[in-house]
Amino acid sequence: MLSGFAYAQPACLRCHHPMIRPIACIDGEGAPHGSTNHAFVYRYTNLAACTACHTLQFECCSHDCWNYHEDEPRDLYWWYTVPPPDAASLSTQLSRCHRPFAAQCNCRIHRQLRDSINTVAHPLRARLLPLHGNEPATTLVLHLTANILALRLPH
Q1: Phi, then psi, of 108 in degrees rounded to 5
Q2: pLDDT value, residue 34
Q3: Which secondary-structure segment (H or E) carries 25?
Q4: What does pTM read for this prediction?
Q5: How far apart are CA 2 and CA 13, in angstroms?
Q6: Whole-angstrom Cα distance, residue 107 to residue 20?
Q7: 5-44 burial, b for 16+ CB within 10 Å, e for fewer?
Q8: SS3 24
Q9: Is 53 exposed, middle or buried (0-12, 13-18, 19+ CB in 10 A)?
């Protein structure tokens, strides 16, 4: 495992192949639960690729130790997949970033991916998903116009 790269779902959500490889850390804040720097909140959006079918999958995690009366699980997860060939195009775009594993990187690709995930995710996050295995994922498609990258729900 890459240092600092968290990923709770170790298998491909499309073909269930057990091998995925880290591609990028898109966003993040805080330190993992149990670490000395942990202070209530830990969140990340990381990207991995299936070594078999080449699907890309985003994993978004939100950990909050301040769960009032157990109103929701401490760890919530959301998954988004980008199937080939959009995955290949997105990988090409990400290859232009010099710091793909820097969650706070402010390059154009990181900014556009953060914006896309946040725009797509807000209506979908109404489905709060604790990790149980074999989780559902929402498929996204890549829209690339000029130098603007956006992930969207398929029509």
Answers
A1: -55, -45
A2: 67
A3: strand 20-30
A4: 0.78
A5: 20
A6: 25
A7: bbbebeebbbeeeeebebbbbbbbebeeeeeeeeeeebeb
A8: strand
A9: middle
Q: What distance in Å separates the CA atoms of residue 23 and residue 81, rounded to the nearest whole number?
A: 13
Quick one: average pLDDT of 102-120? 89
In one letter, which amino acid is 114?
R
On whether the CB atoms of residues 34 and 63 are closer than 8 A, the answer is no
Q: What is the mean pLDDT of residues 11-28?
A: 90
Q: Tell me how far apart the alpha carbons of residues 30 and 123 are, in angstroms, rounded to a whole number.
A: 24
Residues in Cβ contact with 49 at an 8 Å cutoff, skipping those fewer than 6 apart:
20, 21, 23, 55, 56, 57, 87, 91
At 90, list the tokens: 């997105």
Confidence (pLDDT) at 147: 72
12 Cβ partners below 8 Å, 6+ apart? Answer: 18, 19, 20, 50, 52, 53, 55, 57
CB 51 within 8 A of CB 20: yes
Note the pLDDT of residue 99: 95
What is the tens place of the pLDDT at every residue in 48-100? 999 999 999 988 887 667 666 666 666 778 888 898 989 999 999 999 999 99
In this model, does residue 129 exceed pLDDT 60? Answer: no
